[in-house]
Design goal:
By secondary structure, the chain is mainly α. It is about 60% helix and about 0% strand. The chain has a single domain, classed as Up-down Bundle (AhpD-like), CATH 1.20.1290.10. Helix 3 packs antiparallel against helix 4. The termini are far apart.
Length: about 160
């Protein structure tokens, strides 16, 4: 095997094709996703979606939103650093950091609530309507992640411009 050849493990099949089996739910999720995006910066939104998807271990969504972020002009470096954003804060704006931290707090509810200090940071960076949309977008990506993880959707086949969530 040459240094450029890689042996890949076989691709696992999805457990089930939930979007085809529950088309009304899927269509409602697509509409909900579109509604949650309104008024939000697309780059910030992709960073939040990538981070929530990393935390939820949704490979399909990490793949999709990383590709969408790259297609929108986001840097590879900033996408890579998301998994270690707390140690890499200088890559992001204060507003992005507040959004990423809020995404983590809403995604990982181990304390049963979003800490006041996390919410306060976000409230300082976002107008109320925009903050409401951000919370909606974080909630929606978490729902998508749960569909993806529960049904074991396969990453690697998405191309920017395909139907997004």
């Amino acid at each position: 095997m040459t240094t450029n050849e890689h042996r890949h493990a076989p691709e696992h099949p999805a457990r089930l094709q939930w979007a085809q089996l529950s088309p009304d739910v899927y269509k409602a999720m697509v509409r909900l996703d579109a509604a949650s995006r309104k008024g939000l910066d697309p780059t910030l939104l992709e960073l939040v979606k990538i981070r929530a998807s990393q935390l939820n271990r949704c490979a399909l969504c990490v793949d999709m939103h990383s590709k969408d972020a790259l297609a929108a002009g986001e840097s590879v470096e900033r996408i890579i650093q998301l998994s270690a954003w707390e140690e890499s804060q200088h890559f992001y704006t204060e507003k992005e950091l507040a959004a990423i931290e809020l995404a983590e707090a809403v995604t990982v509810l181990t304390d049963g609530f979003v800490p006041d200090e996390v919410y306060a940071k976000a409230a300082k960076q976002f107008e109320e309507a925009e903050l409401s949309q951000l919370i909606a977008a974080i909630t929606v990506i978490n729902a998508w992640n749960r569909f993806g993880v529960a049904t074991r959707q396969v990453p690697g086949h998405y191309a920017p411009g395909d139907i997004k969530h």
